[in-house]
Amino acid sequence: MPEKKASVQLPTGIAEGFEIPITESTEKWSEIHLEDGSVLRIKPNVISAIRITGQYDQDGNPMYALKSSQVMAVVSAPEHLRKDAKVPKVQ
Fold this sequence. Notes:
Layout: E1 4-10, E2 13-20, E3 30-33, E4 39-56, E5 62-76
Antiparallel strand pairs: 1-2, 2-4, 3-4, 4-5
């Protein structure tokens, strides 16, 4: 599939590039443990990759921008943070 022209918003402004077809993607879950005892799981869903024209990193590799969405799930939360939690009455 031929590369398709695309624009992407960068912190420095709009950059031009080419959308590069994704041939394979392994998107794994990351588990985040919060101080309040909750455990969250997140993973990215990559929609497309854009190679930015004329932009390179310090090693000379081309720069890419990803269009993605994020999926998040709460694996567990302490009982006192849950909806309808039984909160002890203050006397």
